[in-house]
Amino acid sequence: MRKYVTMIIAALSLASVAFATESQIWGEMRIQNILGYDKEGSTHLGPLFTMLQHQYFAWIFLGVLIGVPLAFFIHYKIIGPKVFPHSAKKYYAFNLYNRIIHQVAAVSFLVIVPTGFIIVFGDFFGGGTLVRMAKNLHGIFTIPFTIVVIPMALMWLKEALFNLDDIKWFMILGGYLSKEKKPILAGKFNAGQKMWYWVAILGGITMILSGAIMFFLDFKMQMLHDLTGLSQIDLLRAAAIIHNVMGFAVVALFITHVYMSMFAIKGAVQSIITGYVEEEVKILHSTWYKKLKDQGKF
Amino acid sequence: MMSELSKMKFYCDTNRCIECFACSVACAEAHDLPTGISRRKVITLFNGVEGKEISTSIACMHCTDAPCEQVCPVDCFYIREDGIVLHDKNRCIGCGYCLYACPFGAPQFPRDGAFGAKGAMDKCTMCAGGPLETNSVHERELYGQNRIAEGKVPMCASICSTNALLVGDAESVSAIYRKRVVGRGRGA
To answer: Which residues of A touch B70 (CB under 8 A)?
Structure first.
């Protein structure tokens, strides 16, 4: 913990040093930036970002915000939730460490996602104090997520690797399109959960990095310049585009994750709160259930 | 009717700019800008290359199709009837998008929040203040002088000793420049 705090303080103090030195945007580089804007052979990232942000980003976010919950609402009305009886048989699947890590990430997301939407629809909220506060919270709650993202990636990595079960899971869409309770092939995590794992981890890290580039703005990142060949301003433009596009995926799957745990499988959320999974794994995670049964753990 | 030609524009005559930095300094002084913010900047190209070296002064160019205005998530920009691009600092959240969209690197961000968070964006107002009550204390504090409202020329152009920096409606600016080109007997 102390190591992380030291790292954050070091990053912030380094940032202030970088601000004091020659600016990558308003200093010498400014001339190249102006001359290169949309010229032939340039990256065209400036006009591209302008076009995307002006015409598409907010509408796509609105589409995701309305479309995904709407699809689930229809699913809930037509197919309905899956309800499983509470039996005496339980298996302790998530230890305290797993749950704390997950809950820190969960709380971070519950702040980051809504504040992100407030920023995207900032004109609707009239800008000013409210949206500025949302922007600050959006950044502050990235810190707890940054702290837990690597431990979370490591603790579930083995279960999140795709295997043959997942192809069959995808072919029937996890059985969510039928009311039947037939055993579905899946390990501890089904293909949907695995998809969310990779989007949350890899997408989450992408969001952290692109967000940090935008937050620190004029922080000199020589390694990134060398790696990408982009100037600081183009790096910022790329970061803004990536942050928005990755945001579509993260938000869509985050809503899905919440719907599945809170509504689609009644009581599923309890398993990450108490750590115990119940009889429903027999149906929803049949491969895992069989394995546990063989080991005599269920 | 306002046409493209009657929009307010800056133009810097590179045949006259002598890289004295007066515009930049006068601007910072006139608007009490904090350290680290320079709304106007003098840049030199081909420094030291004989016959090729030119200097010019840049700030917000008050674009007709201002990209900053197009990308702002909180819609804090507004373009005046006369073409001056202004923004509302009380609405601005300091996200930085206008900077990414701007071809000239004009928007700047003072670090005034906690943990070095970006404050409200600051840029050249063509000495036309902001959306607050004209020449009020609040307007002056947030945006600097409103010289346009007083019928004065923007500070940078008024201080320019060689009259390199021109400002006015596009038609008048180009008329002056045309006359200079004719007088010099060669192009720009």
So the answer is: 50, 53-54
Look at residues B66, B65, B88 and name the one whose alpha carbon lies nearest to residue B142. B88
Q: Which residues make Cβ contacts (< 8 Å) with residue A243, sequence separation at least 6?
A: A207, A210, A211, A214
Q: Are A142 and A211 in contact (CB under 8 A)?
A: yes
Tell me the pLDDT band of A20, cut-offs 50, 70 and 90.
very low
Q: How close, in Å, is residue A2 to chain B by CA atoms? A: 18
pTM listed for this prediction: 0.91
Among A155, A176, A167, residue whose Cα is nearest residue A272 = A155
Is the pLDDT score of A64 beyond 80?
yes
A274 near A139, Cβ under 8 Å? no
Indicate which of A132, A215, A235 best probes the interface with B, i.e. most B CBs within 10 Å of its own CB.
A132
Q: Do A31 and B109 touch (CB under 8 A)?
A: no
Q: How far, CA to CA in Å, does A202 sit from each of A151, A197, A246?
A: 13, 8, 10
Tens-digit pLDDT profile for residues B26-83: 999 999 998 889 999 999 999 999 989 999 999 999 999 999 999 999 999 999 999 9
